[in-house]
């Protein structure tokens, strides 16, 4: 009887740890098999709270993730990892948006009309800087709008 209880507790513990590991990987969006897709570079004047791991979307559909954010010539250099089956036109526009009023930041890409496609490790040249709500609010409060 005592041995059966120990085995049941051990099995329950192992299953709990496996479930916790699975949820950590899925919710943390971790990939152990390497990164799939191709890299595209975008330079913004400011990232306004964007973080590595944030979503990249077209028409509300997630097509990739922000791989890294760095500084290059006093501009925020953002590397996006885009799914292989998604092709971006050379005149696409990248902008940083917020989900809801105080939600998380993400990169929205508006497709262009060009026939030329951005190659792997290419650049999106057209950008829209993020709206700084704090600056807008302070201008509104102090009557400078």
Topology:
Blueprint: H1 2-28, E1 38-44, E2 55-58, E3 61-72, E4 75-82, E5 93-98, E6 105-110, E7 122-124, E8 126-128, H2 133-141
Parallel strand pairs: 1-7, 2-6, 5-8
Antiparallel strand pairs: 1-4, 2-3, 3-4, 5-6
Walk me through what this model shows.
The longest helix is centred in the first third of the chain and has 27 residues, at 2-28. The protein contains two helices and eight strands, in the order αββββββββα. The protein has helices at 2-28, 133-141, and strands spanning 38-44, 55-58, 61-72, 75-82, 93-98, 105-110, 122-124, 126-128. The protein has 145 residues and is α/β, with parallel strands linked by helices. The protein folds into two domains: 1-30; 38-138, no CATH class. Strand 5 (93-98) and strand 6 (105-110) form a beta hairpin. Strands 7-1-4-3-2-6-5-8 form an eight-stranded mixed beta sheet, with no helix packed on it. The protein is extended and about 75 Å long.
Quick summary:
With 145 residues, the protein is an alpha/beta fold. The protein contains two helices and eight strands.
For the terminal residues, how far apart are their CA atoms?
77 Å
Please compute the radius of gyration using only Cα atoms.
21 Å
Mass-distribution shape: extended
Tally of contiguous helical segments? 2
Mean pLDDT: 85
Which structural class best describes the helix and strand composition? alpha/beta
- Uncertain runs are none
Determine the fraction of residues in helical runs and give it as a percent range. Answer: 10-25%
The tally of domains stands at 2
Beta-strand segment tally: 8
Strand portion: 25-35%
Order of helices and strands: HEEEEEEEEH
Largest sheet: 8 strands, mixed
Strand order of the largest sheet: 7-1-4-3-2-6-5-8
């Amino acid at each position: 009887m005592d041995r059966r209880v120990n085995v049941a507790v051990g099995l329950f513990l192992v299953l709990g740890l496996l479930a916790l590991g699975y949820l950590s990987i899925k919710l943390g969006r971790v990939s152990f098999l390497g990164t799939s897709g191709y890299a595209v570079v975008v330079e913004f004047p400011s990232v306004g709270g964007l973080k590595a791991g944030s979503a990249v979307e077209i028409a509300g559909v997630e097509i990739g993730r922000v791989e890294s954010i760095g500084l290059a010539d006093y501009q925020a250099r953002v590397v996006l990892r885009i799914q292989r089956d998604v092709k971006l036109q050379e005149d696409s526009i990248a902008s940083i948006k917020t989900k809801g009023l105080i939600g998380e930041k993400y990169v929205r890409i508006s497709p262009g009309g060009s026939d030329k496609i951005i190659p792997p490790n290419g650049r999106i040249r057209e950008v829209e800087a993020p709206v700084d709500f704090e600056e807008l609010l302070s201008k509104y409060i102090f009557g400078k709008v």
